[in-house]
Amino acid sequence: MVTLMSALFVLVALLVPIVPTPTQDAPPTVTMKVRSCTTSVNDSQPVALVCTLKIPEGWHIYWKNPGALGVPTTIEVDVPEGFKVQPALFPRPMVIDESTEACYVYKNEVTLIQPILPPESWSGDSDALPFKLTCTWFICRDKCFIGSAEQTVMLPWTQTAMAPEPWARALFDNPALPRPLKLRPKTTAEIRNGHLVIEGPPTKANAVGFIPDPTPGVVLGKPLVDPQEDRLIMRIPVSVQPGNTLGEEPFAKGLLTFGEQATMSAYQVSVPIEIDTTEIESIREQREQREQREQREQP
User: Fold this and answer.
1) Domains (ranges, CATH) in the chain?
2) Which carries the bigger pLDDT value, residue 201 or residue 20?
3) Most buried in the list 36, 139, 229, 230, measured by CB within 10 Å?
């Protein structure tokens, strides 16, 4: 006979994300190097910190959406007052299969870019402004380890904008660094009849894919590509779980990819999803009331 307690254990097991278990053995060494694309900072020029991770052979770390298994790679930056940290830029990941489902990973080496917007003016010390970047990763092979590193870059404030370093220009020309979808000619994305629909001119690439990166509460299904010679049409089922949006506006997001290799081109797709906001507000109020009640009940 199934007891209530055993049923609860089964339910919890189904709800908990699958994460490989870290071990107590010696972890592999991931080296991190942080540089600035410019040698100074200016009110008219964003700061771009470049974080390069070298991954030991045979190991991998995860993209910002790990997929079926794993933990995302994250970047945090401590900046001087008035500077604003923007979302980090992640290059297109590799797609591998673990437990029969897709995971999104990096192998060998990956370079992440962290944009930072400067204030309109600066009245503090102009000789050396500190920007401390901390990166955390989950590295796996037959075992998994949590790792992190931090590094501080010092930049002076100048009155004149500086040209990016030559190596930085090549970095931004990398086709694996996803571009906004609007930069692909005559290509659109919209929510239509419960699907994310991407349409555009045909491609000569041997494969077209989609790597999902939805906001909380948004579930994206398997993409389907219509085999048309004169048009690229991709349809991806979309559903929203209002109770899991964490109060965020839901978006259908991900990468439209061309070719099978992670070094080939990709485009950022981000489309807002219209839902009944009153339902989200009701769920948020119920969550807040529950948290307040739990706080009152604590001894």
Assistant:
1) 20-172 (2.60.40.1250), 179-279 (2.60.40)
2) 201
3) 139
